[in-house]
DNA sequence: GTGAAAGCGCTAACAA
DNA sequence: TTGTTAGCGCTTTCAC
């Protein structure tokens, strides 16, 4: 171990003192320089930066965090990192966060409240400055903890009456109405809906939007054509199976997410149905893969980068809140219809 | 702000002193209790735990890290979080790490050396105790930094002569030989190979294994049937396009990864080719989605959980190295052939 | 403008 | 077995 005062010291990661010594200033000046304090003369500032370069020094984040009380870490909790929607979202969120000097802690709740609780616990231990809860409807187990610890948070589709909480609202309405109208314009009247898990707020919101959109289009909903799935490919296959078992068949299926739609595409193929000739299929999310399904999936695009940016912005405003300024507490993320090859006119 | 000594203090996150006071012991005893030191009597230990519960206290990781020099953070760098192989890998790695009390920092290099360098820099600032570099062949830009800072690391398919570096070798040979044999047994002699980017070690290793496997099967390789792709779906489509432009056609295609194979499946479909009747296709990775392609993809399975476990184990051994014990420096991850529906006999 | 010094919350020597 | 105390590397008053 290197000890101070020995002549021959082992090469050690340089610390603020090393820099101060080399630049012949006090450690306070080094600290000020690094943090861009205006109260440092150009002369000294230059010397300090030179020393920093020379030593290849960088500050110890732990020490910095300890004294400043700021970790510069944001947490992001997603539902399932294995669903392609989420890696794309995480990627965007990370890019933005890193660009602003934050690090991120990612957790996948896998719809397990116990796992979720544990995630939050770990994030609190790491003193995150904010948490984006993008589980789309499984927020309950975590909110108390977060609220209790006064951690800024942003929730998708969940309004929480807490000064530290912001909300991201997703405007499914626009996209879903456009999708239903698109199908109606093509001549479809028999439209089925493969819903997401009813315990998810987002899934219920989407389902309700489907209902109002159908009404708006002057179409009636056949109750048995609305079946609850689980937002996975397998779930889509199973859901479509239920549809096929019915006496009367729809000519189009709108799905609560892309993975479900991909499952339908697959199940339809296995049954010898041609998409879109025999059946039109619409997804929701527009994951990267949607472009490459067979046929390419018509879907309602939900922009990951827009969502990520809203989430980051919400947290940043909370974290860096100035006494004076009001902050934005609600963000709206838009959706839009992307027409590809999986929709067409119904058979006459 | 809450100040000590005022009678009415604002509720504050409890610290070790709060606990010590409540349990009527010294802070050292609290620390020992938390860290499971055997040198604490049951009597006091019980009092301490009680106080901890009562206050809902948890230690400040930053302070802990600062003094102990251990952050309990591991870094994992992947090539592209958007390729389904990686989220599955990250998920496994995280589970194991969390189970052992580590937090993880994820970064996606996107094959950009500048991004990679920046990732490592950030990880060093956060004082990671180890980094798993699972970029499969783009390690160069980071190794120097890591080596220089004496951070344990584990590299996939790259032997680095450094005491802090471990290597994970992937036994592609077994899987690729099995795949070629499988095709040969079905009667294929005209086998094409859609390679990965030649700048990736892993891609070259796979390609070489293909060559030796072909030789072992007594088959000759048509040079123009070996085309370099980029491990993406689009790349697979393009690569297959090149194959189709040739005068003579192969009856089977082995791909350097699943995404490429999925691209081939798609391109073949667009050309009206039936898989496997007109063309057999084999992938490599066995991503979750492989099971759901049309037809389900025959592929060479590379276990993510096995890989994740090896990576974690390598880092843990380095991080928690005991003076005495030797540690394992090389790990081997196996591959195996998974036969599904995309391979069959060639047309007579 | 600049520096000296007091901690941030914890662990680990050292004492008792 | 338990407590006292000296820092870990940094930011931030408070003097100068």
Structure report:
- The structure is a homodimer of 348-residue chains.
- Chain A is of the alpha/beta class.
- Chain A folds into 3 domains: 53 residues, 434 Repressor (Amino-terminal Domain) (Orthogonal Bundle); 128 residues, 3-Layer(aba) Sandwich (Rossmann fold); 130 residues, Response regulator (Rossmann fold, 3-Layer(aba) Sandwich).
- The first copy, chain A, contains 12 helices and 12 strands.
- In chain A, the strands form 2 sheets. Chain A has a 6-stranded parallel beta sheet with strand order 2-1-3-4-5-11, with helices on both faces. A 6-stranded mixed beta sheet of chain A has the order 7-6-8-9-10-12, sandwiched between helices.
- In chain A, helix 1 packs across helix 2, helix 5 packs across helix 12 and helix 6 packs parallel to helix 7.
- The N and C termini of chain A lie far apart (84 Å).
- The N terminus of chain A is likely disordered.
- The interface between A and B is large, with 42 and 43 residues.
- The first copy, chain A, binds a DNA duplex (16 and 16 nucleotides) through helix 2 and helix 4.
Could you outline the blueprint of secondary structure elements for this entry?
Two copies of one chain form a homodimer.
Chain A: H1 16-23, H2 27-34, H3 42-55, H4 61-68, E1 73-78, H5 85-99, E2 103-108, H6 113-125, E3 130-134, H7 140-148, E4 153-156, E5 165-170, H8 172-186, E6 191-195, H9 201-216, E7 226-228, H10 233-244, E8 252-255, H11 258-270, E9 280-285, E10 298-302, H12 304-319, E11 330-333, E12 335-338
Parallel strand pairs in A: 1-2, 1-3, 3-4, 4-5, 5-11, 6-7, 6-8, 8-9, 9-10
Antiparallel strand pairs in A: 10-12
The first copy, chain A, binds a DNA duplex (16 and 16 nucleotides) through residues 15-17, 25-32, 35, 39-41, 44, 59-60, 62-69.
């Amino acid at each position: 171990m290197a000890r101070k005062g020995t002549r021959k010291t082992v090469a050690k990661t340089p610390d603020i003192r090393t820099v101060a010594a080399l630049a012949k200033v006090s450690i306070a000046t080094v600290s000020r320089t690094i943090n861009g304090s205006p109260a440092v003369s150009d002369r000294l500032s230059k010397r300090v930066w030179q020393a920093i370069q020379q030593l290849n020094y960088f500050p110890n984040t732990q020490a910095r965090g300890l004294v400043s009380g700021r970790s510069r870490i944001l947490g992001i909790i997603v539902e399932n990192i294995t669903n392609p929607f989420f890696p794309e979202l995480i990627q965007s969120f990370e890019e933005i966060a890193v660009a602003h000097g934050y690090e991120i802690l990612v957790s996948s709740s896998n719809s397990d409240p116990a796992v979720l609780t544990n995630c939050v616990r770990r994030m609190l231990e790491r003193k995150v400055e904010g948490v984006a809860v993008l589980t789309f409807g499984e927020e309950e187990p975590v909110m108390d903890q977060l609220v209790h610890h006064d951690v800024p948070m942003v929730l998708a589709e969940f309004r929480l009456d807490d000064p530290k909480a912001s909300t991201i609202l997703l405007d499914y309405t626009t996209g879903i109405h456009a999708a239903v109208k698109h199908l109606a314009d093509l001549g479809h009247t028999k439209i089925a809906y493969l819903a997401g898990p009813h315990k998810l707020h987002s899934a219920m919101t989407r389902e309700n939007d489907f209902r109002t959109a159908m009404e708006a289009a002057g179409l009636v909903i056949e109750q048995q054509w609305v079946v609850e799935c689980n937002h996975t490919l397998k779930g889509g296959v199973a859901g479509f199976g239920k549809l096929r078992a019915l006496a009367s068949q729809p000519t189009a299926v709108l799905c609560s997410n892309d993975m479900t739609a991909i499952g339908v595409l697959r199940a339809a193929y296995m049954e010898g149905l041609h998409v879109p000739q025999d059946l039109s299929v619409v997804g929701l999310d527009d994951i990267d893969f949607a472009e490459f399904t067979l046929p390419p999936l018509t879907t309602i695009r939900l922009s990951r980068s827009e969502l990520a940016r809203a989430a980051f912005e919400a947290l940043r405003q909370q974290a860096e809140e100035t006494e004076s300024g009001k902050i934005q507490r609600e963000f709206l993320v838009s959706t839009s219809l992307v027409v590809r090859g999986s929709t067409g006119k119904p058979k006459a």
